[in-house]
Design brief:
With 459 residues, the protein is α+β, with helices and mostly antiparallel strands. The chain has 19 helices and six strands. The longest helix has 42 residues. Helix content is 56%, strand content 7%. The protein has five domains: 110 residues, Chorismate Mutase Domain, subunit A, CATH 1.20.59; 78 residues, Endolytic murein transglycosylase (Dna Ligase, domain 1); 64 residues, Dna Ligase, domain 1 (2-Layer Sandwich), CATH 3.30.1490; 107 residues, no CATH class; 39 residues. Strand 5 and strand 6 form a beta hairpin. It has a four-stranded antiparallel beta sheet with strand order 1-2-3-4, sandwiched between helices. A two-stranded antiparallel sheet has the order 5-6.
């Protein structure tokens, strides 16, 4: 090439031939452009239909900015950026016009969705699709094996785990890992996430008896296929029989098996040091137990409740009074039997401490009710004559053991009695509380009022 024109050295005939050839190539390119524009318009029509179905606006400035940015990357000489964008502005104007037209007149162009699917199939050669299909199949089988294949526990079977309320998915996974159930903890986390069970794990005690997969374990925990945790409320002053009945009703344990364990003399002596029953040393209150719990873990929990309620201050107070923790627990059970009104428990406790100090019989009606035949409604002179070490009318001092399981308020009252000079008390008919007196004559006066009220009530 030389000079201003690279064709100057050619003859007019040669130039004419090249001109015709170039025009022919341009015609071919125009044909390709028209076909590409047709395909682009088809997609614009379908995009418009989808936008309308989603209640989205036809015009999207952000999308046009994105197109401008992308086509600028494809730019090569002799095309200039401004020229290229002017061309695309016309193309985009036409796309918007077609979308508006269909928005106003309905789907007037015969552009079915399957045609787009056919077009998408052409994006990759047939053999490439086969390769992709094989890869996906291999990945699918691998993931199925990983997530659904059984994992052999590293610590053997069976494995028991306890998932308490409030544990997060991460804490549960850590527990499962420590139990030797997870070869790869991260895969268990992923299984919980994929299955949607991360927040659906049921608090319960589970016994794993066979190898399980990650997904199987995830479903197992979400379905709560274990012994669920349940709240048990034991009222103050409840008997051992009452505890066993509540536990049986809540399906925590069979009543007879728990009663047998609570009244096992050898085990009771082992825990208390001298008593042949755990009555009195099983603290009432609200507890959480797993269903099908063992008698031992229930007893341990209730007995530990009693041990933990006896503070250092209480032990110091008992020592100053020359009493043991067990003796004051016996007294607490009597106080518990006297009243449900907690504010007067310390005053009642003071009465009994005063009687013990002067070696006066406690004469506590709850101890008579304890030894009276079942169904006894009122204590009469006949019940007062029952020969039993628990008869505090015939025997001075404390009975040989507690008569019920006292609650915290009664225990606190026994260890910290109110200091006063009262020796007697009787039920006040009007308030249902008690009237306290210092002398026997004062007591007889108040007692007569009470008995007159009883007789009037029976008429």
């Amino acid at each position: 090439m030389n000079g201003r024109n690279s064709f100057e050295d050619m003859s007019p005939e040669e130039r004419e031939k090249i001109l015709n050839a170039l025009r022919s190539e341009v015609d071919g390119i125009d044909q390709e452009l028209v076909e590409l524009l047709r395909k682009r318009t088809i997609r614009s029509i379908l995009i418009g239909r989808i936008k309308r179905s989603l209640n989205q606006p036809t015009y999207s400035p952000e999308r046009e900015k994105d197109i401008n940015k992308k086509i600028s990357k494809y730019l090569k000489e002799p095309l200039r950026p401004d020229a290229l964008w002017r061309i695309y502005e016309r193309i985009l104007d036409q796309s918007r016009a077609v979308q508006r037209e269909e928005a106003e007149k309905g789907e007037i162009y015969n552009v079915p969705v399957p045609k787009l699917t056919d077009e998408k199939k052409k994006l990759l050669p047939k053999n490439d699709w086969k390769v992709i299909g094989i890869v996906f199949a291999v990945v699918f089988l691998l993931l199925t094996y990983i997530f659904y294949g059984s994992n052999t526990p590293s610590k053997g079977l069976p494995v028991r785990i306890e998932i308490k309320p409030g544990l997060s998915a991460d804490q549960v996974v850590k527990m499962l890992d420590e139990a030797g159930l997870l070869p790869t903890p991260s895969l268990m986390k992923l299984s919980l996430l994929i299955s949607g069970n991360s927040t659906s794990i049921v608090s319960a005690r589970y016994t794993i008896t066979e190898p399980m997969s990650y997904m199987g374990l995830s479903s197992y925990l979400a379905a709560g296929r274990g012994n669920h945790i349940t709240r048990v409320d034991l009222y103050d002053g409840i008997s051992n029989n009452g505890i066993a009945s509540v536990m049986d009703a809540e399906k925590v344990i069979n009543k007879d098996s728990l009663l047998s364990a609570m009244n096992n003399a050898a085990k009771a002596k082992q825990k208390t040091g001298k008593f042949e029953s755990l009555r009195g040393f099983l603290l009432p209150g609200s507890y959480y137990f797993y269903r099908n719990s063992s008698a031992q873990e229930i007893i341990d929990s209730l007995f530990n409740g009693w041990q933990n309620i006896i503070t250092a201050d209480m032990k110091e107070s008992a020592e100053k009074m020359g009493r043991s923790e067990h003796e004051l627990t016996i007294l607490a059970s009597i106080i518990e039997g006297e009243t449900n009104y907690k504010p007067e428990m310390k005053r009642i406790s003071g009465v009994y401490h005063n009687r013990l100090r002067i070696r006066m019989p406690l004469q506590a009606d709850p101890t008579i009710q304890f030894i009276a035949p079942p169904g006894t409604q009122r204590i009469t002179s006949r019940e007062l004559r029952i020969k039993s070490p628990y008869n505090t009318y015939l025997n001075a001092g404390l009975p040989p053991g507690p008569i019920n399981n006292p609650g915290k308020a009664a225990l606190d009252a026994a260890f910290f009695p109110e200091k006063h000079t009262y020796l007697y008390f009787v039920v006040d008919p009007e308030s249902g509380r008690h009237v306290f007196t210092r002398t026997y004559s004062e007591h007889l006066k108040e007692a007569r009022k009470y008995h007159q009220w009883i007789k009037a009530k029976q008429k």
